[in-house]
Amino acid sequence: MRANRLLAATVLSVLGAAGLTACGSGGAEKGDAAPAASASSAATKPAAGGGLESLSAEQILDRMRAANAKITSVKVVFRVEDSDGDMAGEAFGDAAGNCSSSVAMEDVGKAEVLRLEGKTWVKPDVEAVRAAYGAKAVTLVAGKWVTAAKLSGLAEFTGFCDMALDLTKKAGFNEDGTPDNTVTKAGTKKVGGVDAVILTAEDEDTGDPLEIAIANEGEPYLLSLVTDGRGNLQFSHFNEPVRATAPAADQTIDLDALGMAPS
């Protein structure tokens, strides 16, 4: 299985679709993934189950793909290392489009995002405001929740909202949508407190090893992806509600009302 399908092409394609990789992928400091507004940091433990260790690698992936297809909400905590800069954060989203995320990108800044019932708010830090709207906007915008019909100036951050579900739906598939079963079984271990079976793969382009953890308790959800020197992702809070509330009116700024066109 190609590591760049599960990590690079899966993660980075999601980020690239939002224009993130072009801006220089990065997260402030390694491991500095700020907590999302609506989720606890503990992994959600599935109900009792198991038995995957006795199956073939292809059978394990078949069960993972079937389970992942039914996920209605999920949280991902991630760290991606890139020569242009590191990226770290987390995103918790559901199939209805609701989302709570927090992402830091080196040389771009850090921002929180809320999306509820189709409306999006972004709370950028000073660096992110300066990059999106210029230095003159820092005093007005920094520390506030920003909203507008189009938030293209902050697309580096809003694009993460659908990331968690997109990742789980794409895991284990080739780019043409066919199953990718080129993996090897590599034992078991706990991931986020959950028993997991481990599969390994190698990126056919770079040779980088990839470790794939799949829950061996309850539903066989994808739990984590780890690749040496590239980063890692951990999934949790499967099918839990995205508990988030719209920011208070006195904490928001409508860029359309102010006539501030994004850069």
> SSE string, helix = H, strand = E?
HHHEEEEEHHEHHEEEEEEH
- Tally of individual helices: 8
Please identify the structural class as seen in this structure: alpha+beta
Strand order of the largest sheet: 5-4-3-2-1-11-10-9-8-7
Plain-language structure description:
- The relative contact order is 0.24.
- Helices cover 23% and strands 30% of the residues.
- The protein has one domain: outer membrane lipoprotein receptor (LolB), chain A (Clam).
- By secondary structure, the protein is an alpha+beta fold.
- It has a ten-stranded antiparallel sheet with strand order 5-4-3-2-1-11-10-9-8-7.
- The protein contains eight helices and twelve strands.
Fold topology:
Elements: H1 3-17, H2 20-23, H3 57-69, E1 73-80, E2 87-94, E3 99-105, E4 109-116, E5 119-124, H4 126-133, H5 138-141, E6 145-147, H6 155-158, H7 163-170, E7 184-191, E8 194-202, E9 209-215, E10 222-227, E11 231-236, E12 252-254, H8 255-258
Helix pairs in contact: 1-7
